[in-house]
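Cont'd.
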Amino acid sequence: MLLRKSGTVESMLAIALIVAILASITSVVNSVNSQAETMGKLLNVGETFVILSNSSTSITDSKVDTELASLIKNVANPKYVLTQKVFTASLITDSDRSTVLVRGVDTEAFLEARNAQINGVSANDTQANVGEILARLVLINKGDMVTIAVENIMVTVEVAGIVQTFTQSDTELIVPMNVANLLTEDNGKVSIIEFALTDTETTEIDQLSRLLPTDVKIVKTQQTQAFIRDVNNQTLSFLSLWSIAVYATVTTASYVVATRLTLESGYELTMLKALGAKSTLPFKLILSFTVVITLLGSVLGLAIGLSGAQIISTAIRWAWINIQITPALEIQQAAQIILFTSASSIFGSVYPAFKVMRHTYAELPL
Amino acid sequence: MRLISFKYLQKQRLLILTVVLMLASVLFSLTAFGFLGFYRTFNAYLGESEDIIAIYNTGSTTPFTGFIPLQLTKRIENISGVLANSPEITVLTLIGGKSVFFRGVIPEEFYKLNPLSVVKGEALQLQDTQSTIVGRRLADTLSLAVGDKVLALGVLAERYLELEIKGIYESNSALDDEAIVPLYAGQWLRGTNYETVTLIRVKVDKTKLTSALLYAALTKEEEAPQPDGKTKPSPIEEIVPISDAAINPQNLGAQETKKLMKTYLERYGMTQETLLILSAAVFIFASATIFSASHTLIRQHEHETAVLRSLGASTRILKFDLTIKALPWSIVASLIGVFIAEVSLLAIESSGVQAFSHTVHFNLDPLLVALNVLLVSAIVVLAIVRSTKKLNLK
């Protein structure tokens, strides 16, 4: 009866158009985000990981058991495993004393993994390699003798080669692990364990994660997907805040719809009361009417929004060849829009419905 | 018959229309200010000064991913009208699960274009091999303090880097959301060699040099014989080995920084005009509710208008009077809507909502406010005319 009123279509359209705004913009944002994710997947993401202690935010603070390297070799079939002890030390040369970062490693394996260009050779147990930038800064040449000091412990080594790796190691002193252990007086722990997998199987990493002690964590060194996810979430959080305004508009639209219904159905509602209907009946009727209108409007709005976005994106594709937008909504997003729209709508229509419930039939005009 | 002084519209009922108008206005303002905020923030990424020209790779799809030879700086500094030039590499990283932009720069050159005020710690030097300085907003977001160490993970390359915070700076620009490292550290994180950078920003004397002239001079330099090679090495060359890289002028572009960002946005169909049209479309979609509310308002006053009609008021007079009575409300509603939207956006801004890891600044635009008032008023007039016609005011 109530749905046959002249304003029903108009009311439904009012809700539908508001929902269409939300649906279209969400679908376009989804498309942009999914394109970013696809581009991220196309990147040749490496398979290098580092293990460092759970509580640390930096490499120098981290302490990891050296024995974990064997575990990685047994479980993950890695391309390489490099235990690294990273710490700051004083570098004393003939002319200068400066604070530098020292990396204790298996020098040959480390420089090979870094594809290093070496002017000289990789360091043996009594030698060190110096990163090219550090060498220029502190004026060190191949064959020089330098002293490395950590508090009161000093070790003098010969510079076996100047290395270029295009990594942080170009500003570091690279020493064999025995030298690093001597300087730090700690043989059982390293700062990190770096390893690279031969393929992209994530099962090996999952298996390794389960076997590792709880005080360490595995970190992938290239975080393309996580970066894209974070950037996408930034857009989505603005969209969520913006959608509050949309739902507020739905609430007032529903208030208007319910008010209009009470106006246009004054005769019917009064008759119902006059015939002895419970006072809650008009309340239920108006609320049900608004919910039905909102549900139909939401579905229509989703359709209008999605098809509108599709049409506009196709038109844009014709105008700018480079742009490929394929608007789409996920099922849970569509459900969420319908749910929130319905909730806003019920909220908006409660007061007009309640007002009608409070009226006696004598107050309602016939 | 004059009805102006006759107050037959109930204020409570008018208030509902006002709330509807206000919310439509909030929606329009949020969309328009929001979109334009994103647009302007992105445009201002490389600076808005008109005397700064960017040399970039025309083939790159984003302003963050192209490569050009660092050797160009040598040519640029010999061009008359160049005041300073800053080679920069933009690096995308992840620190503690948060996306962070790094700029690898030659600090001494960079400060000539962007004088930073260091609020804590010290300024960065090219020789600070393990250090970084971070923008104030980034420091707040990640709760970073001077002396802290961070582990930056690469995004476009398989790299990780430990850096100590040497200082926190303020620039009142997009840089406040970024971190600055020496150029070579940026090149490590980007996974490139020491010969390439993302772009070179050039500060010019506008009376002597334009972007077109700079580009022409760069191209001419390519054809001209090289200088005798006895020039003083640049600061970066003193500590980083840089070999000659091939320079292909066809891949190079020179544009004012603001125009450059605009060019990139336009490639994706994002212009100020399209964003405004989109915002207006949002308002028009929401205006169906305004029509419904106007219709309801007139239905609610059917008895009053019927009395007036019986007293001799013509439909035309009634339409005119209803419009005159509703217009001040609509203007007030749209202004309140703009105010609410602006307050909300400021709250959003201060809560740290970002786009592409940069804080978005939402500024009040008088033109948009005027457009808002105009749109709301136009819709109200249309809605009243349509509703009175529909009801025929009998």
